[in-house]
Design goal:
The chain is α+β, with helices and mostly antiparallel strands. It has one domain. The chain has 4 helices and 7 strands; from the N terminus they run βαααββββββα. It has helices spanning about 15-25, 30-35, 45-65, 185-190; strands at about 5-10, 85-90, 95-100, 120-130, 135-145, 160-165, 170. Strands 1, 2, 3, 4, 5, 6 and 7 form a 7-stranded mixed beta sheet that branches. A hairpin with a 5-residue loop joins strand 6 and strand 7. Mean pLDDT is about 85; it is low at about 1-35. This is Cytochrome P460 domain-containing protein. It comes from Ruegeria atlantica. Keywords: Signal.
Length: about 210
């Protein structure tokens, strides 16, 4: 049961989270869930509770991620949103996530087996950690960008980026600390028939 008392995680501890995640990384390459430092005791929230928490942190999260100064993420919260409430994602460490996609990813919500997203498509999942003890704080922003054909054959021309809540870059497969996020594509190979993209659980899809 979700504890009504919410203790916001201090921003000053973000650096400690980065250090802890980096230390954990070495032993977690084989599992996408573990590599995202899975939360052991995530709270079970109703859609209404999850939405309320997200809205209370939304602007803070946007400002934090903006510090990364990545043009492809500018105003991402104004992009089409495909879920009607944040949902727990096992592949993102048992955090509550939202699934945004830019206008180039026009077929993200209707992608058929074998169909591809066009070059320039960007998918962004921001995340929130909520535990049974009532701890609530922003999580990482997980990003996929579809590159030109042949740019990165080993990742099916997808670029993976992970931005921490304070805007620091945890890893970028086409840039700094690429080794830190190489496991992302290993996980996404499970949905290769959907152009390596996971979609929203059916009960959370907008309009369902």
């Amino acid at each position: 049961m979700f504890v009504r008392f919410i203790r916001l995680f201090p921003t000053s501890l973000a650096a400690l989270f980065v250090v802890g995640l980096a230390a954990h990384q070495a032993g977690a390459q084989s599992s996408g869930e573990d590599a995202h430092l899975a939360i052991e005791n995530p709270a079970e929230l109703s859609k209404e509770e999850a939405l309320s928490i997200y809205k209370s942190l939304q602007r803070r999260m946007e400002r934090g991620y903006a510090a990364a100064q990545l043009d492809l993420l500018m105003n991402y919260q104004a992009w089409p949103l495909f879920n009607d409430a944040p949902y727990i994602s096992a592949t993102h460490g048992q955090r509550y996530v939202n699934s945004y996609a830019n206008r180039m990813a026009h077929n993200y919500g209707t992608l058929a087996e074998g169909e591809k997203l066009p070059m320039g498509s960007v998918l962004a999942k921001d995340s929130v950690t909520v535990t049974d003890e009532g701890n609530v704080h922003p999580g990482a922003l997980f990003v996929m960008e579809k590159l030109a054909q042949g740019t990165s054959p080993e990742t099916a021309d997808w670029r993976y980026i992970m931005v921490m809540p304070d805007g620091s870059l945890f890893g970028d497969t086409m840039g700094a600390r690429s080794d830190a996020v190489v496991y992302c594509h290993d996980c996404h190979e499970a949905v290769a028939d959907r152009d390596y993209t996971f979609f929203v659980p059916e009960e959370y899809v907008v309009g369902n």
